[in-house]
């Protein structure tokens, strides 16, 4: 065993993968998870039912030897299928070919697979134990146990992977302020379900060009952009789709405040999302029983307390979900932290400071891009100027791949730092705006001159590692 024993709070996606990485590097790891063991009790959701896994997350899983197993339970998504009000759908590919795709995975199945892997690597998992308080002087923690009791435990190095509402963060903040700032998006979300096609009324089966048991094209992330709000749908392996409605929380119609129940919401869907509504046989029950989730971005000045405690994943930097990167970013965190700790197991103060130094600019960058992507998804994917920029950008990326790559591709299919992707994306966007300033038509742009402009203005892209 190397270094101090590690006490991990939270056995969700990031905590479970971190436990694998640390145990594989020889650390003694105990994980305390608030919920019951999902492998016995069933997965108690609460957050999105499925998620998009991209290259960064896959790379972290690869390094833990888990990528192949995860992909066996994932559905490939090649691009965005954008649905207009008239019911037409068009696929906008994410990348150049099937080497650039994202994967829809079940949160519950992934969590359980990671918990199995953590246990197999030697981590000890303790379920039904919620962190309640911490004495940082003695490093003793109090855990609220499932039966309503309490248990005091001597902690090792404390790492909080206990999500956006982190109890460890609250305890650290009470001990020495972390400079916490929460920026609410002002929009919420609600989940609905499209069942497998075979469970829909016959007239609706195979609607929308669906295949096999799916009611819609399975290999796409579906978007119904409507300006200030939208619906999206991600496929599940068993033929269903999880639909998420994103809408302002408050304010003038439409908002969750103006659509308090399924009757009001059904009337709204029948005008704004008529094709989609017809694929949601359980709309009323789902709308009335599924809660409205809130969305915020979390910023902290400090992620650690001396060499004693550290926050990781959503506990340190929760973001809004519109780039599909929260988990991916947290998975990237796990590799960086495990490598740093393995290199200097006895100098945890330096390791924690270095971890924040490396990761915080990138967490800030993906936080900013995730908010920007909300506007893009709900609005611009149907906007002609956005589409012209996208078309010109794609033509240039094919013509000069060393100098032009869409920001979405940099974020989703490479391992370049998020902060680099943000900066490079801004520079490329300014050039595309310049090239399309005098014409709405890509055909009017001299592609050779445009390529020369990119090459003379921007340095070549760095080494881009694809998976
Ligand atoms: P969590 O997943 O929140 O896990 C925290 C764990 O800690 C939980 O198991 C919880 O039970 C436990 N816990 C909490 N309190 C305590 C306590 N006091 N003591 C002990 N244990 C505790 N990311 C993507 O990459 N792609 C996507 O497509 C995507 N889609 C999303 C869609 C939505 C609607 C939302 C809300 C998020 C989405 N995300 C996505 C983000 C992703 O869900 C998070 O980034 C990811 O879950 C963070 O993992 P985590 O382990 O840090 O936190």
Question: What are the SSEs and their pairings?
Answer:
Elements lengths: L5 E4 L3 H12 L4 E5 L4 H4 L8 E4 L1 H9 L3 H5 L3 E3 L1 E5 L5 E5 L8 E5 H15 L2 E4 L1 E7 L4 E6 L4 E5 L2 E4 L6 H9 L5 E14 L26 E5 L4 E6 L5 E8 L13 H11 L1 H4 L5 H7 L3 E7 L4 E2 L3 E3 L2 H4 L8 H18 L4 H31 L5 H16 L7 H7 L4 H18 L11 H11 L10
Parallel strand pairs: 1-2, 1-12, 2-8, 5-14, 12-19
Antiparallel strand pairs: 3-7, 4-7, 5-6, 9-10, 10-11, 13-16, 13-17, 14-15, 15-16, 18-19
The protein binds flavin-adenine dinucleotide.
Question: Could you explain how this protein is built, in words?
Answer:
This protein has about 475 residues and is of the alpha/beta class. The chain has three domains: about 230 residues, FAD/NAD(P)-binding domain (3-Layer(bba) Sandwich), CATH 3.50.50.60; about 110 residues, no CATH class; about 80 residues, no CATH class. It is built from 16 helices and 19 strands. It has a seven-stranded mixed sheet with strand order 6-5-14-15-16-13-17, with helices on both faces. A six-stranded mixed sheet has the order 8-2-1-12-19-18, sandwiched between helices. A three-stranded antiparallel sheet has the order 3-7-4. β1, α1 and β2 form a beta-alpha-beta unit. The protein is globular, with a radius of gyration of 23 Å. The protein starts with 5 loop residues before the first strand and ends in a 10-residue tail after the last helix.
């Amino acid at each position: 065993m190397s270094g101090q024993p590690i006490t991990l709070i939270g056995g969700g996606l990031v905590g479970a993968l971190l436990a694998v990485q640390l145990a594989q590097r020889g650390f003694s790891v105990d994980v305390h998870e608030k919920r019951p063991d999902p492998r016995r009790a069933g997965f108690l959701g609460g957050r999105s039912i499925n998620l998009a896994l991209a290259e960064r997350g896959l790379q972290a899983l690869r390094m833990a030897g888990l990528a192949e197993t995860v992909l066996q339970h994932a559905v490939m998504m090649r691009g965005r299928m954008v649905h207009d009000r008239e019911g037409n759908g068009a696929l906008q590919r994410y990348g150049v070919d099937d080497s650039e795709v994202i994967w829809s995975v079940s949160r519950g199945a992934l969590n359980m697979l990671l918990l199995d892997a953590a246990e197999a690597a030697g981590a000890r998992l303790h379920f039904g134990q919620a962190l309640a308080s911490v004495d940082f002087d003695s490093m003793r923690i109090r855990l609220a146990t499932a039966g309503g009791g309490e248990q005091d435990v001597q902690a090792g190095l404390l790492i909080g992977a206990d999500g956006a509402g982190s109890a460890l963060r609250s305890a650290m903040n009470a001990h020495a302020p972390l400079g916490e700032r929460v920026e609410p998006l002002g929009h919420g979300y609600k989940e609905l379900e499209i069942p497998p096609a075979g469970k829909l009324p016959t007239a609706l089966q195979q609607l929308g060009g669906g295949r096999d048991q799916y009611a819609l094209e399975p290999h796409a992330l579906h978007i119904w952009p409507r300006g200030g709000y939208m619906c999206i749908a991600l496929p599940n392996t068993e033929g269903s789709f999880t639909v998420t409605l994103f809408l302002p929380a408050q304010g003038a119609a439409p908002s969750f405040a103006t659509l308090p129940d399924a009757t009001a919401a059904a009337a709204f869907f029948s005008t704004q999302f008529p094709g989609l509504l017809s694929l949601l046989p359980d709309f009323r029950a789902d709308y009335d029983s599924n809660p409205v989730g809130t969305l915020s971005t979390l910023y902290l000045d400090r992620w650690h307390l001396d060499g004693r405690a550290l926050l990781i994943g959503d506990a340190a930097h929760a973001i809004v979900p519109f780039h599909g990167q929260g988990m991916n970013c947290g998975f990237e965190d796990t590799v960086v932290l495990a490598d740093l700790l393995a290199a200097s197991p006895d100098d945890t103060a330096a390791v924690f400071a270095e971890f924040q130094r490396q990761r915080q600019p990138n967490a800030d960058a993906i936080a900013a891009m995730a908010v920007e992507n909300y506007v893009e998804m709900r609005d611009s994917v149907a906007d002609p100027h956005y589409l012209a920029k996208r078309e010109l950008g794609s033509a240039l990326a094919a013509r000069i791949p060393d100098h032009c790559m869409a920001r979405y591709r940099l974020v989703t299919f490479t391992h370049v730092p998020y902060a680099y992707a943000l900066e490079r994306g801004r520079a490329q966007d300014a050039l595309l705006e310049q090239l399309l300033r005098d014409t709405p038509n890509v055909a009017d742009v001299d592609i050779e001159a445009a390529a020369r402009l990119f090459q003379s203005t921007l340095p070549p892209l760095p080494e881009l590692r694809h998976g």
